[in-house]
Design goal:
This protein is of the alpha+beta class. Helices cover 49% and strands 7% of the residues. The chain is built from nine helices and four strands. It has helices at residues 17-28, 50-55, 74-84, 95-111, 118-124, 128-150, 162-176, 185-194, 198-202, and strands at 9-12, 34-37, 63-66, 69-72. Strand 3 (63-66) and strand 4 (69-72) form a beta hairpin. Helix 1 (17-28) runs parallel beside helix 3 (74-84) and helix 7 (162-176) packs across helix 8.
């Protein structure tokens, strides 16, 4: 059997925002896949096991086995899916809009999410909630300003893009850390519109194989 005929395997965690980005991309592109849950809290963190380190030496989720290779880093995975399965497009053809999509994606994936990631919060002790709120609010202040210039119905114009795949999970993180979203009407509006789309619903943390019963939709 050719590698292209083997169903992809996604290693992830229901609540991981980086895993969620990839689940949305797979759903939008209609790619069937199997999931291997990696519980980031159980057994001291299953991502730290020797078994998972063989899959991803960075010991982070997500990782995707696809087409005979294993990829980690959510945006790298999404770029590969875009290169190999371009429909529907997640990166606009227009160079300016494409650059804006990448800019917003990096703003979230590099400038906000890593600062409030589990590994960082573990180092913050009792200050973890305060730290997460500060990091997200600071990032959202800038993001709101950017989106006021780029947004249509979604982050960049009226087509769903990679930027939207980054936005929705980050808003969920903000809600989980009790960040006041009042100052960010553009972020809130776009997030609400995206959550109405089927790909965002099926990929939601409340609907995954490893979602605890009390958090299921």
């Amino acid at each position: 059997m050719s590698s292209a005929a083997v169903k992809p395997i996604l290693y992830g965690y229901f609540r991981s925002s980086c895993s969620w980005r990839v689940r949305i991309a797979l759903a939008l592109k209609g790619i069937a896949y199997d999931q291997v849950p990696v519980n980031l809290l159980k057994d001291g963190g299953q991502q730290l096991s020797a078994e998972f380190k063989a899959v991803n030496p960075m010991q982070q989720v997500p990782a995707l086995k696809i087409d005979g290779i294993t990829l980690s880093q959510s945006l790298a995975i999404i770029h590969y899916l875009e290169d190999t399965r371009p429909n529907p497009r997640l990166l606009p053809q227009d160079p300016k809009k494409r650059a804006q999509v990448r800019m917003i994606s990096d703003h979230i994936a590099s400038g906000i999410q890593p600062l409030q990631n589990l590994s960082v919060l573990k180092q913050m002790g009792e200050r973890k909630m305060e730290w997460a709120q500060k990091c997200i609010a600071s990032g959202f202040q800038a993001l709101e300003q950017v989106l006021q210039q780029t947004a249509g119905r979604y982050c960049v114009g009226d087509e769903v893009s990679m930027a939207d795949l980054c936005l929705v999970p980050q808003v969920a993180n903000a809600e989980r850390f009790n960040v006041d979203l009042g100052p960010y009407p553009t972020i809130t509006r776009i997030n609400k519109a995206l959550l109405e789309l089927e790909a965002f619903k099926v990929s939601h943390p409340s609907r995954q194989p490893d979602t605890p019963a009390e958090l299921r939709a």
